[in-house]
Amino acid sequence: MIEALVRLGAGSLxxxxxxxxxxxxxxxxxxxxxASVRRPGxxxxxxxxxxxxxxxIILVSGLFVGMVLGLQGYNTLVDFGAEGSLGTLVGLSxxxxxxxxxxALLFAGRAGSALTAEIGLMKATEQLSALEMMAVDPFxxxxxxxxxxxxxxxxxxxxxxxxxGILGGYLVGVELLGVDAGSYWTNLRTSVDFYDDxxxxxxxxxxxxxxxxxxxxxxxxDCVPTAEGVGxxxxxxxxxxxxxxxGFDFLLTALMYGEVG
Amino acid sequence: xxxxxxxxxxxxIFVALGFVALLFLSIKxxxxxxxxxxxxxxxxxxxxxxxxxxxRAPVTVAGVRVGRxxxxxxxxxxxxxxxxxxxxxxxxxxxxDTSASIxxxxxIGEQYVELEPGGDPDYLADGGEIxxxxxxxxxxxxxxxxxxxxxxxxx
Lengths: 261, 155
What we know:
The structure holds two protein chains of two kinds.
Chain A: H1 2-37, H2 40-77, H3 86-124, H4 127-133, H5 138-176, H6 181-191, H7 194-221, H8 227-257
Helix pairs in contact in A: 1-5, 2-3, 2-5, 3-5, 3-6, 3-7, 3-8, 5-7, 7-8
Chain B: H1 2-29, H2 32-35, E1 40-47, E2 58-61, E3 64-75, E4 80-88, E5 99-104, E6 111-116, E7 129-130, E8 132-134, H3 139-153
Parallel strand pairs in B: 1-7, 2-6, 5-8
Antiparallel strand pairs in B: 1-4, 2-3, 3-4, 5-6
């Protein structure tokens, strides 16, 4: 009984301490962001790691999500004789929700886990300590460029995802199922608003990029520096980053579209 | 050096692809083009009931789109809806006795404002008010009136 209470207390203390460290970590990342902007070489390298290497999975999943939306949407809409509205359905769901959220989840799995593993191994092999030994702060050199690259890569990936998805919906809806091409594009243009839908989706994906990379970097930086610890941290990154993305998605959606009844 | 160039090229292609996708979404998918429509002037119309009319709905004459709804307010003085219409400057010769009515495209489609030009020799200027307006058809009211008429007729 006492043991259980002790464990509960230790767990709560640990969770509080971790939250505090994560907050401090975010603060130091923010403080070092200008320094990494001044050294763009590192950011470009990380853009390659985070963005270019995630591109294939984003392109393929975007295409398939769009094609599935086209197929499912058509089957539902055709009962009401409203298959002309397929463009609205595919476009709004991709631009508002699926584009930013799905690409952020894929990004967490593809790039976030790699980030955690990389930073975790740097810690386990004492590279970070070595930097600190030489009085080099790892934040502007190692961590902040990765965070900034995540910021930049995420909205680009989300936009690519939406665009490919809309083309996938076009492929299935128009080419395969015979929806009129004109009504597909016209419906898209009348229903998708540039500011309310497209820009809000981009803002969402910037926030998701920041959240995913923050979680990934923190988990790597804070992991137990052993092989097992790095593995656990990588798993935790995927779980927590995905939960964070979904939580922030609800929050942002409520803020952006909340008052629209 | 060569390796670094290849990496920078890949990142360049990635960023360019992102911007191409954004451009595609802005122009082909969203209504950005409509924000950049040419000069327009404002007409005002008061409606007793606007039904489901929304801002940015089209304004048509004889079925041709000539502008859009700029804003919808409630006018406390007349207890009516005050609808501001942004009309393209190309179409600036509507007679003073032009009438405006709220129509629905199709049975359940979106609502829009249709203008019907009258015969007055003078034209509406910027900020001019359209006097003759017809409210939106509210289905419940029509059905209600029909049922009421039927019930009183049978007495």
